[in-house]
């Protein structure tokens, strides 16, 4: 069974379950070819790093965000990385890549993360090593996604619901998302505190600054956070103390020649058959898969039935 067909079948089962969150696969695999979720074992999990994105496709910006948040020394138990994809209706073919295709790219992305963490030539068969989970949710917002993850037994050690406390969730995001999290328009009927109090009790935000023309320099972005701390959040129905749960970190440094990475640039590179340029935007494994599968070439997205029929 191909990666795409595996994830197409897994999505179908998720839909039928009527649940709002499910881990579909854990890397490294427990044995070759055994794509399956694997709950944490042994000591209680302390930190769950959550990279929530459309992954259309996963890019080198995602890679840097994940690697910078992971502890310096790889090792089991202390942390875990969750790659989380929000889906609306998996029966349709979202553009320009269908959900099973995105999940397949997330799998390749996770493999490369683990290889980078372990170093050249390392084997990935040790199931007790640090793990990366690939999961889906039907929830649209961070606070509701966090609630769905916390309500799941998956990260409570034994997985039987009777054991350990849920780990602290750390959401890896960009500065533009920080603005949306604290935008009152997403919380009708003055519901911001009701939504964000539980979220920011169990979770933190690790915000990578975007120093470009759209969002200003690092000083401007830090000043925005200080304005929230200084009373701006209280004015819109929030709490200034929430900012204590926000960690700002540098991304692309000011003056650095590195180009801004975007899905639009990925599609432009594919349309122009600029495979070298594509590898400046996504990792080699993801780039090879995009080229082989013919993604982002202006063709309509494939339907679920087509993806399920792939060998």
Automatic annotation (TrEMBL):
GO cellular component: cytoplasm; nucleus
SUPFAM superfamilies according to UniProt: Nucleotidylyl transferase
Protein name in the entry: Nicotinamide-nucleotide adenylyltransferase
GO molecular function term, any single one: nicotinamide-nucleotide adenylyltransferase activity
Superkingdom, taxonomy of origin: Eukaryota
InterPro entries: Rossmann-like_a/b/a_fold
